[in-house]
Structures are given as C-alpha cells and as structure tokens.
Amino acid sequence: LTTFYTQSMEKPITLTRYVDPKKTAAALYTLPVEDAPIKRTTLNTYKTKKLTVDKQATIEGQLWYRLRDGSTFIGWTKAANLTATNPFDPIEYDKAVTAYSRVKTAPGNAVWTKPYKTEGANLINQLSVYSGKKMRILREAKTPITTWYQFSVDGKTIGWVDTRALTTFYTQSMEKPITLTRYVDPKKTAAALYTLPVEDPPIKRTTLDTYKTKKLTVDKQATIEGQLWYRLRDGSIFIGWTKAANLITSNT
C-alpha cells in the first residue's frame, strides 16, 4: 500500500478564514480526504461565519484546513475553498431605539437575523409576511449599504430589515412636554394605558378604570397617525399613555 494520509501529517496553525462565495457547494469532511462516508456537510452552512483554522495538512499535493466555528469542530476542507478576505459589511453602529413602523415596500425586501451582508446574517422571511403589522423597533444599525431596524411583532423579536422599506409612524422625538390636569372620562374606563403611545397589546399596562377616581397629570403629548395621546402620571408615578379622547378636564 501507499499511505497518503496519517494524522502525523496534520500541523497546528491558527488562521482566520471565510467561505469563498464561489465555493459554498464544497464539502466538509471528518478527515482531510474526499471520501463520501466521512462527508459532514457543505460550506454553505457556514457562508456567513468567521471561521478559525486550527490545523493544516498537505495531502497528495493539496493543502487542507481543519475548521472551527467558535469552539466547535466543523470539519476539513481544501484551503482553496476559503478566502482570507472578510466578505462581510462592517456595522458602523448598533444602538437601542424606540419607535414603531409599518411595512411600506414589501417586494424585494426581506428580514434577516443580522443586517444583510454582515457576519451571521441569514434569511428569516420575506418582509411581506409582516405587512399590516405594527412593528416595534428595538435597535438601529448602520452598514455601508443602508440603515437597518431590528423589530418585534406581538412581543416577539423577529429580525432586521432595511429602514427604507418601512414607514415609521412613531418616534420619541414626536413627544412634546406639556403640563395639564386630566381625569378619566367615566364612559372610557375600559380604555387602556400603554407604555408608549401606540395601541399594541404587548405594551398594554392596565385600563383607566384603575385611575377613575384620580386627578392625573399630563406631562407629555404626541400626535400619532392623527390621534392625540397624553402621557399620564398619578402624582410622581408614570402610569402610561392613553388617547386624549379618553380623558376630561373636570371631574364634576
């Protein structure tokens, strides 16, 4: 026999590599040999990942790399299937924001696990799935392509979308300071109080019935989609936002 691979041929090394976008169909193997029974998966699984090379071996004139995804061994592949050039867009900033949006342009837009073309970005769904939904905006990130929003629907975090595909109907900049005294309209005690001036069940706090006997202070107002909202306090305690139409100026 001619033995073309033994473990003694493996040499330790530390490198960072990425999947060559043209080689996503190439395979990963348990050992540095193209043998169907030891095929693990294809590089497509890791096309959005930064990978670590921890061993190399030259087998029959071909250089192979052993790869890890973080601390997890994922297999061997030929070095030619990888690139040292980072193919991912950088994230210029990523910050928490508070806003609400709706889908404006669904065709050609999708939702991603991270901003599109950044490391770890995988497709979740087409944006059209969320048409008509109130999308609570949680974070904003900037890449060279555009600005991205991370959003939740019905209290569940979904993913990231291009801000150009959305219409944003509430931002905190719409809130204006004001000082007024108001009381609950006896006919509106079933109306809700929300954490923000948007009727969205996950941010409902309670109903106005809790405060029907109280003198309340309005400390902010916001006009959202043509509706005037007031932010209320019971003494010094924030109790929530409700539509101005649910309140009256006198308790008599």
Automatic annotation (TrEMBL):
Main location: membrane
Any one cellular-component term (Gene Ontology): plasma membrane
Database matches in Pfam families: GW
Cell membrane recorded as keyword: yes
UniProt subcellular location: Cell membrane
Keyword Magnesium: no
UniProt keyword annotations, A-Z: Cell membrane, Membrane, Repeat, Signal
Gene3D superfamilies: 2.30.30.170
GW domain location: 9-87, 93-171, 174-252
InterPro entries in the record: GW_dom, GW_dom_sf
Alphabetical list of PROSITE patterns matching this protein: GW
Signal peptide: none
Entry-linked NCBIfam families: GW_glycos_SH3
UniProt name for this protein: GW domain-containing glycosaminoglycan-binding protein
Species whose genome carries this gene: Listeria immobilis
